[in-house]
Specification:
Shape: elongated
Number of helices: 5
Strand content: 15-25%
Mean pLDDT: 86
Low-confidence stretches: 1-8
Order of helices and strands: EHEHHHEH
Strand order of the largest sheet: 1-2-3
Radius of gyration: 25 Å
Distance between the termini: 57 Å
Oligomer: single chain
Structural class: alpha+beta
Number of strands: 3
Helix content: 25-40%
């Protein structure tokens, strides 16, 4: 029997999160465990690193569209305010006829342009946990 489904995709395996490491739990510039060991060596002045605590977390870098989500209502409110300043009560009904469908279309257009033109030059760290360096980590 031929497959009659369209636009179906097999589920993709979940991508493992990118791990980041920190010697302080605040600075997350280390993206490789060997960099963490190198930094601890340089800061430890010959101390045995086994047993030292470090932090590991999952790096999350969102697309620009994430930060532009659900802003259409705010944009329409700002447009109304600007129209009111320009034309007083004549502009009372300005933007009141924008349908939910039109708002969704505008939202999608804004998000698409944001992803194309806005560079997200930061990331956040989630699922932070402490860990301890073992002798095996140093081998």
């Amino acid at each position: 029997m031929p497959d009659t489904t369209t636009n179906s995709q097999a589920p993709q395996p979940a991508q493992a999160p990118e791990l980041v490491y920190s010697t302080s739990g605040e600075d997350w510039h280390l993206g490789d465990f060997s960099e963490l060991i190198d930094e601890l060596h340089s800061n430890g002045e010959g101390l045995d690193l086994a047993g030292m605590t470090y932090w590991v977390g999952e790096k999350r870098q969102r697309p620009a569209s994430w930060y532009f989500s659900h802003n259409v209502g705010l944009l329409l409110d700002q447009a109304r305010d600007q129209a009111w300043q320009d034309a007083d009560e004549i502009a009372d009904d300005f933007c009141n006829d924008v349908t939910d469908e039109a708002k969704a279309e505008l939202d999608a257009a804004i998000k698409a342009r944001a992803d194309k033109h806005v560079n997200v030059n930061f990331w956040t760290v989630h699922n932070i946990r402490t860990a301890t360096i073992t002798p095996e980590d140093l081998a």
